[in-house]
Design goal:
Shape: globular
CATH architecture: 3-Layer(aba) Sandwich
Number of helices: 4
Structural class: alpha/beta
Number of strands: 4
CATH topology: Rossmann fold
Radius of gyration: 14 Å
Length: 142
């Protein structure tokens, strides 16, 4: 029997934030959590997100962008919206026992050069990693 808690990360396009969160939680605590991600609309996984995750040894290149519609029929212990837009569209995920929000900026909107944008992705990745550690790395999980 699988006693792992099921977690769903949600952002608008399921391209960066939710993909990075899925990869981070699975890599760090995959023994305790069954992790998925989805978006309010479908896109494709950001090549920049793949790049900055590879920098810390986590490969998300096999991930694909999914919509919430693809999660129909699945139940989750926890749904986490990672952007304000996703929270507005689905403030409560009916297939989850609990829905929480913790917003992170869209790294794609980082102004400047390619290196500036990549640094924006790194900053968001590191922010999500720290939040995951604080939130899921304790015995008092959400």
């Amino acid at each position: 029997m699988n006693d792992k808690k099921k977690v769903l990360f949600i952002c608008t396009a399921n391209a960066a934030r939710s993909q990075m969160a899925e990869g981070l939680l699975r890599a760090k605590y995959g023994d305790r959590f069954d992790v998925s991600s989805a978006g309010t609309r479908q896109s494709r996984v950001s090549t920049r997100a793949i790049q900055v995750m590879n920098e810390i040894g986590i490969d998300i290149s096999h991930h694909r962008s999914k919509t919430l519609d693809e999660m129909t029929g699945m139940t989750f212990d926890l749904a986490v919206t990672l952007c304000d837009n996703a929270q507005r569209i689905c403030p409560v995920v009916s297939s989850a026992k609990k829905t929480i929000h913790h917003g992170f900026p869209d790294p794609h909107l980082t102004p400047g050069s390619e290196e500036d944008i990549l640094q924006g992705y790194r900053n968001v990745r590191d922010g999500i990693a720290a939040w995951i550690e604080r939130t899921f790395g304790t015995d008092t999980q959400p």
